[in-house]
Amino acid sequence: MKRTIRWLPLVVAVLLLFTAACSKSGTDPGTSASPGASAEQSSKGDKKEITFWTIALSPTFDDYLNGVIQDFESKNPGVTVKWQDIPFEAIEQKTLTSAASGSLADVLNLNTDYLKKLAALGAVANMDELAADVKKDYFEGVWSAGEFQGVSYALPWYLSNSVQLYNKELLKKAGFDAPPKTEEESWEMSKAIKEKTGAYGNTLKDIHLYLPQNGIKLVSNDYKKAAFNNEKTLEIFKKFKERYKAGLIPDEILLNQAKPQEWYAQEKIAFWGTGPQLFRQVKDLSPQVYAKSDSAGALIGSSGKVNVAIMNIAVSAKSKHKKEAADFAKFLTNGENQLKFAQIVAILPSVKKAAEDPFFTKGKDSADPAEKGLYYAAKQLEISENMFPPVENISKINKAINDEFQKVLLEDKDPAKALADAEAAVNKLLK
After folding, report:
1. Cα-flanking dihedrals φ and ψ of residue 296, to 5°?
2. Mind giving me the DSSP string for 211-243?
3. 171-194 as b/e, with b when 16 or more CB fall inside 10 Å?
4. What is the pLDDT of residues 23-76, one digit of tens each?
5. Cα–Cα distance, 316 to 201 (Å, whole number)
6. What 3-state DSSP class applies to 355?
7. Helices 415-430 and 394-410 meet at what angle, rounded to 10?
């Protein structure tokens, strides 16, 4: 039976590597509980009610999540789960406001950025304590996404990492019979591809992931200051300035004036690094180009790691039923339930056992780039790691670094000055 792909708009919206796509949601499936009701609830006898918030998953995944909830309730007599889905555009304000008033749901679906904001407020519980018994089940680099200043505040749920979609004919015209394996190799190939075909190779836009992928920390070990202003980063900035002047980095991509999937479909790009769930966008745009494409693993930097973007499950620090809330968080993210989720939507699991299932490994020899890409993505989970520092304001920190990097390329700003200015901006954000 062929897998039915059901698009998960939020996966695309919040996993920072990929193209945004908004969904209409916000229904309150099967519950009349008001947001944050757990803070006001009282137990009647042995009955305990926990509230659960997700982000933009209803109505598409009502059947799946209601099934998980019913299964949990049957295995935990006396515990009731009330689920509420919240629109993506409302989640940050809702969680921060509720955290300030002490009315968060017992169990929360949060992206890594929002999680760290709530952790900084002391609003979410220590999962090193509540879920110590299951920590070994998750990929180590994925588990670290829930950390804030050395403490884990969430269980990893669904996630995505990046692999490559590449045009076999363009590479052949440039004299290559295989895609690049490393960042350095990709830029060497990009020069030949541009000269012989007119297409671009690597289309890096942001630098905040490139640096940690190549062993450069953005923030110091004590989380108090920027750590990237050094000779190695300076050489990287200078090298990219040379690549830009050589015509290897298009303005349209840097300025978000062009979408990589559209350029790939128009054969303006020879290879595109993204989650395999987005490959079929190319098939929709140009079946002919998709037919001459194949997939490969992600470009690897000197760190040997691949960035992974993650959705997390946290427990409110003020939950009246913290044990039951943690039990539900563990149940929701266990291998069996994650595998079921992955079989209905193009995501990756955070649990090792689920990733070993034939569902992911069978794509190794597939002729379909998306199916093969899923195999590579799952295989990469052993070397995948959340590369965002465990600090508050990480989105603003990334933006400050990227803004200065773009000024080096687009405005010919001195790389040393740009790094100094980025460092000052990040240090201000870390105060």
Report:
1. -150, 170
2. HHHTT--SB-TTSSSB---SHHHHHHHHHHHHH
3. bebbebeebbeebebbbebbebbb
4. 333 333 333 333 343 433 334 457 899 999 999 999 999 999 999 999 999 999
5. 45
6. helix
7. 170
Q: Note the Cα 100 to chain centre separation in Å.
A: 27
Calculate helix-pair angle for 231-245, 415-430, nearest 10 degrees. 130
Strands 384-385 and 306-315: parallel
Residue in the block written with tokens 């690094």? 273
Q: Are 41 and 34 in contact (CB under 8 A)?
A: no
Q: Which residues pair with 55 in a beta bridge?
A: 86
Residues 6 or more apart whose CB falls under 8 angstroms from that of 218 comprise 208, 211, 212, 226, 227, 228, 389, 397, 398, 401, 426
Query: The tokens 């350029």 sit on which residue?
Result: 263
**Partners of residue 384 on adjacent β-strands:** 306
Distance of CA 287 to the CA centre of its chain: 27
Average pLDDT over every residue of 279-284: 95
pLDDT band at 203 (very low <50, low <70, confident <90, very high): confident
Tell me how far CA of residue 255 lies from CA of 150, 205, 269, 415, in angstroms: 35, 8, 16, 19
